[in-house]
Every structure is written in C-alpha cells, then in structure tokens.
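Reviewer 2 asked us to include a model.

Predict the structure of this chain.
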Amino acid sequence: MKKILAVARLDCRRFGFGLTSAALVAGLLPSLANGLGAPVETATILTAAFLLVGATCGGYFGTDFAEGRSSFFFARPLPTWALIGGRIAALLLLAGVSFLAFLASNGISSTESKWTPWILEKQHAYALGIAWSVSLFLSLGIAARARDRRGRSGVREAIVIPLRMSASLAAFFVMFGLFADLILRAYFGNFRPIELFFWSWAIASLVASFVAIAWGRTERLRIARLQNLVMGVHFVLISLVVAAAWTYVLHPGPDAIEKVVATWGSASADGRTAFVAASVNRGDGKTFEPIFLLD
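Predicted model (structure tokens):
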C-alpha cells in the first residue's frame, strides 16, 4: 500500500495544481455561456473536465518511458502491480479533486447551481476511463518508438513494409465495413452494439498497455511488440465476431423471414427493387428486423 501511495503522490504533485485550476475555470463556463446567450449543459463541461484529467494522467505515463523516468520505478525495485495501482489511485484522486473544484466554482458563479454529487452520470465515468486508457496506450506506443533511430533500408523493407501496410488497411476497412453494414441495416437507432464495439477497443488498449508495462519493462522494442501482439489478437477476435454477427443477422435465408415490416424509401425507377425491413425469426427466441433489397 505504501508503494501505491508513493506513486500516486508523485502524480498528484505533478498534476494536482494544473488540473485543479482547469476544473475551477471549467466551473465558470456554464455561467459565462448563459451570460452570452449560448447556454451549455453543466454536465457537458464536466465531461470535458474528466476527459482532460484522464488524458493528462494516461498521457504522462508514456512520457515517463520516453524520458527514462520509468527505470527509476523498476530500479527500486517496485512491483508492476504497485506502479499500475498507484497510477489508477492518482487518477481517481485527481478526478475527485477536480470534481469538487468544479462544483465549488460552478456553485459560486451561478445561482442556479446545485451542490450535489448526483450531477455525475455514466458518461462521466466513460469519459474518464476511455481518455485514460486510450491516452496511455498512445503515449506508451509513441514513447516506445520515439528513440528507435535505427533506420530500415534495403529492397526487402521497400517491398515488405508497403505490403504489410496495404494488408492491414484492407483488413481494417473490411472489418469496419461489415460492422457499419450491420449497424445500418439491423441496429439503426440502437447504440448498444456500438458501445460494446468501442468499449472492446478501449479495454483492449488498456490490457495491451498493462501487458507491455509488466513484461516490456523499460525495453522499448519489447513494449512495442507486446502492444502490437495484444491489439492484433483483439483485432482477429473482434473481426470474427463481427463477421459471424453479419452473417447470422443479415443472411437468414428465406425460411426465417416471417413478414415485411416496413418499406424504406421508394422503389427503383423501373419498379423492380425496393429496400424493405423484414421480421426475421431464427427460432432461438431472438427476432431481428434487418433491411434487405427486395427483388
């Protein structure tokens, strides 16, 4: 516990004044916006404040590796769990202090403000967690590659690198294309699948960062390889899930289609085709209403 508190205390000293000052200023913005005739929701400003806290705490973690400060923690020696736990503790503490500073500033500047913690919503926790995990992953990845000055040259690299980039981009566009087709045709207006999809990437980036810190230590090449390995495994798994869902929902077969629910837009100019929403029953208790092109 003492080691966790030592790491958390270091982050609080570095970021406490700046983040608290930013929260105090953010608390004044709703009143300022109302005075200018362009009201802004207090909850929205608070979300931006939590995004700043998460991005600052996560982003500086990777900077420690780039500037060599990470070796100080491992040389003590400090267990990896204590390092990660200390960073999380600092994140929560700084978020709490920023929230109280925001409430105080907003309460003083506005007569309509309510000094209550119930202003917090689910979106604020999402903003804090996602900003921290994504900024940690990006800063760690950038730091791991920043000082790799060994240039690659030669015929092999000139051929292999473009091929790898092309294959990665192709796989990326195919997977996201299938996901977009699935959402637009079967889950339009339902944000739950979109939330699960993007949350999976945020969690995967967090796991990749933890794995890189635990086993990569201060070796930048190993950190980069571990991050790529974890994200590559996640990409394969999420691609399989998206492809399976796309096939299951949008290709049910004629026997599973019960009836036409609605027609989307007008028929084609020749009257031969039209977009329709059909009720699909797979016999497993789940009913979908995807959109098909009816001939």
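Residues 27 and 104 are 8 Å apart (CA to CA). The chain has eight helices and four strands. We have added this to the supplementary material.
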